[in-house]
């Protein structure tokens, strides 16, 4: 096995799209003729930010620009998240989507979409679990997991924690080993 953690989320039942690249997650309503370009833009943003080694705040900034170009009365239902700093998560929620972040101390942070656009927030951790959902999302099938790519689903859920094996000395070793929490397999 490789030395790094295996990162994945569990897709929830539903009719939207669930995407995962590295430690970055995205869920959005299934595209129709009016939203196909917008959904493609969000998926491209996820892929490009992950390929460039970006984190949650970089994904949020990029997705906010994509969503700002949306025309129409109703914002697209989508939610996305990724690690921010050593223990937090950056989250963006739009339309009817929602995010639920469970902190290690038992507190719960819920973030709902804004009817006029997107709402974003950095949730300071440590984060124990993360759930991104679309309206009507069902439960996760425990045998399913998504490590990289796109699949059908109504959301995603993952347990999170500090990276296993991350050196705790100095900023240089921290940068090499990675930053922030990740949703890990187990």
Describe this structure in words.
This protein is of the alpha+beta class. Helix content is 19%, strand content 39%. It is built from 3 helices and 10 strands, in the order ββααβββββββαβ. The chain has helices at residues 36-51, 56-68, 171-177; strands spanning 10-21, 24-28, 78-84, 88-94, 98-103, 108-112, 118-123, 127-133, 149-162, 181-183. Strands 1, 2, 3, 4, 5, 6, 7, 8, 9 and 10 form a 10-stranded antiparallel β-sheet that branches. A hairpin with a 4-residue loop joins strand 5 (98-103) and strand 6 (108-112).
Question: How would you summarize the topology of this molecule?
Answer:
Elements: E1 10-21, E2 24-28, H1 36-51, H2 56-68, E3 78-84, E4 88-94, E5 98-103, E6 108-112, E7 118-123, E8 127-133, E9 149-162, H3 171-177, E10 181-183
Antiparallel strand pairs: 1-2, 1-9, 2-3, 3-4, 4-7, 5-6, 5-8, 8-9, 9-10
Précis, in short:
This protein has 186 residues and is α+β, with helices and mostly antiparallel strands.
Radius of gyration: 15 Å
Q: How would a crystallographer describe the biggest sheet?
A: 10 strands, antiparallel
- Overall average residue pLDDT: 84
Low-confidence stretches: 1-6, 163-180
Oligomer: single chain
- The shape, in one word, is globular
What level of helicity do the residues show? Answer: 10-25%
Give the H and E element order. EEHHEEEEEEEHE
What percent strand?
35-45%
The count of helical stretches stands at: 3
Structural class: alpha+beta
Report how far the terminal alpha carbons are from each other. 14 Å
How many strands? Answer: 10
């Amino acid at each position: 096995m490789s030395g790094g953690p295996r990162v994945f989320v569990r897709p929830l039942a539903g009719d939207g799209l669930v995407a995962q690249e590295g430690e970055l997650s995205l869920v959005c309503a299934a595209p129709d003729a009016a939203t196909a370009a917008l959904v493609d833009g969000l998926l491209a943003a996820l892929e490009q930010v992950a390929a460039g080694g970006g984190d949650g705040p970089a994904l949020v900034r990029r997705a906010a620009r994509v969503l700002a170009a949306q025309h129409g009365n109703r914002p697209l239902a989508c939610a996305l998240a990724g690690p921010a700093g050593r223990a937090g998560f950056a989250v963006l929620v739009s339309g009817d989507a929602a995010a639920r972040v469970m902190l290690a101390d038992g507190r719960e942070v819920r973030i709902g979409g804004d009817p006029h656009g997107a709402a974003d927030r950095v949730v300071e951790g440590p984060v124990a679990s993360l759930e991104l959902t679309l309206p009507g999302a069902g439960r996760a099938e425990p045998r399913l997991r998504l490590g990289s790519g796109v699949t059908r689903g109504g959301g995603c859920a993952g347990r999170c924690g500090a990276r296993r094996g991350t050196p705790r000395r100095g900023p240089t070793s921290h940068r090499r080993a990675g930053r922030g929490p990740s949703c890990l397999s187990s």
